[in-house]
Amino acid sequence: MHVARLSLTDYRNYRTAELALEPGATVLVGRNGQGKTNLVESIGYLATLGSHRVSGDQALIRAGADAAIIRAVLSHEGRELLIELQLNRQGANRAQLNRAPAKTRELPRYAHSVLFAPEDLAIVRGEPSVRRRLLDELLVQQSPRLSGVMADYDRVLRQRNSLLKSARARGLAAAQLTTLDIWDERLVALGTELIDRRLALIADLAEPLAAAYRSIVDDDHAPELRAVLSIDGADPDDGDTTGGDAAGAGTDAAASAGDTATRFTEALRTLRRKELERGVTLAGPHRDDVLLLLNGLPAKGYASHGESWSFALALRLASAELLRRDSTTGDPVLVLDDVFAELDRLRRERLAAAIGGFEQVLVTAAVLEDVPAPLAARVVHIEAGRIVDAPVPSPAVPEASDV
C-alpha cells in the first residue's frame, strides 16, 4: 500500500496542502518549524488515531479554525481508496471511506503506517506508558476491533477508580463495596484480552526485532522484550519491575485466557485493601510495562545513547515487518522523521539498505545532505506551511465542504 495523494485543510500550520506521492522513497526537506513533520504526522494519525507528538487533537487544528481535515488516497494493486477524517474542536470526529460515512476506529483497518521520530527515544528511556502505547498502536493496526476493547477498558477503569475514591472518602471497608465486584468482572474480562494480545505481540516481535537491530548496528547485542505484568505483582508505574513472573519474548506467548483471568482476579482480590487506601486500580494492562534488554541488561540505564536510538528504531522496523507479514494490503508506509541527522555515515547507509524493500518510504530532513543518496531521488521542499517544488496532484483529491 502507498499514499498516492494527500490533502490537508486547516491542519497544524497548513491552511491547505495538496501533495502527490509515488511508491519508493520521498524526502521532505525544510528548516525546522516549517511543517514537514506535520505532513507525515497526518498520515500516521490515520493509521493510529493519534499523534506521536501530542496526546489530544486540539493542537492539530489550525489556530482560528473549528476543524481540521485529512484526506488521503491509498493505492494498492491498482485499486484506490479515499479516506477522509475531520478532527473537530467541538464534538466527535467524523470519518468517511469513499464518501460513505464510517466509524473513525475503522480507519486503521485500511491505513497502515509506521513512524519513527526523535521522540521515540522515550520508548527506551521513558515511562512505561510510552511502551504500552507502542504495543497498543501496533495491535490496533493489526486488529482495529481492539480500539473498541481499549476504549471499553478505559471506561470501566474510570468507573472503578471513581468508586474506589468515593469509598476512600466515605471510609468504607472492602466488605461494604459489593458493587465493586461487578466492575471487577468487567475489568478482568476486557483486561485479560488486552494482556494476552500484548503478550502474543511481544513474542511475535522477537525475531524481527533481532534482525532489525543487526541490520542497523551490524552486531548482535541480543535485544529482548520481556513483559512485566502488574497482575503478577510488579508495579512498573511506581518504579517496581521485579515482582512476579515476567513473560519473556522467548516463552509461550500467553497463558491461556482463563489462566490470565484467574491471575487478574486474584490480584484484584489481594490488592483491594491497598486500592481502597489509595483510591486507584493497581493491577491491569494500564499498569504493565515491557522490559527492554540488551545483552541481558536493562536498556534503560545501561544502554548508550546510540544503542538506545538503535533499539527504538529496530522496534519500529520490527513493527513494520509484522504489519507487512500480516496485512492483506501490502507494506505499511514507513516514515522516518528527522532520523538521519542522529546517525553516523555507516548507520545511515545500513538503515537505507534495511528499508529499501518497503513499497513507500517518507523521510523528513532539515538538510538534504543527511539523507543517503538512494533515498533522495524524489525531494519535496516545505516552507512556512507551504509545499514547494512538488508535483501537482492530478487528478486532485476530491474536495468537500466537510466530512
Please explain how this structure is put together.
The protein is globular, with a radius of gyration of 22 Å. It has 403 residues and is of the alpha+beta class. A 6-stranded antiparallel sheet has the order 2-1-4-5-6-7, with helices on one face. It has helices spanning 36-48, 121-125, 128-142, 145-170, 179-217, 257-278, 299-302, 305-326, 345-355; strands at residues 2-11, 14-20, 24-29, 67-76, 79-88, 94-97, 100-102, 113-116, 224-228, 247-248, 289-294, 297-298, 333-337, 360-365, 379-383, 386-388. The protein is built from 9 helices and 16 strands.
**Cα radius of gyration in angstroms:** 22 Å
The total domain count is: 2
Count of individual helical segments? 9
- Helical/strand content category: alpha+beta
CATH topology of the largest domain: Glutathione S-transferase Yfyf (Class Pi), Chain A, domain 2
Give the overall average pLDDT. 89
Q: Looking at the structure, what is the overall shape?
A: globular
Report how far the terminal alpha carbons are from each other: 23 Å
Say how many strands there are. Answer: 16
CATH architecture call of the largest domain: Up-down Bundle
Topology readout:
Elements: E1 2-11, E2 14-20, E3 24-29, H1 36-48, E4 67-76, E5 79-88, E6 94-97, E7 100-102, E8 113-116, H2 121-125, H3 128-142, H4 145-170, H5 179-217, E9 224-228, E10 247-248, H6 257-278, E11 289-294, E12 297-298, H7 299-302, H8 305-326, E13 333-337, H9 345-355, E14 360-365, E15 379-383, E16 386-388
Parallel strand pairs: 3-14, 3-15, 8-13, 13-14
Antiparallel strand pairs: 1-2, 1-4, 4-5, 5-6, 6-7, 9-10, 9-11, 11-12, 15-16
Helix pairs in contact: 4-5, 4-6, 5-6, 5-8, 5-9
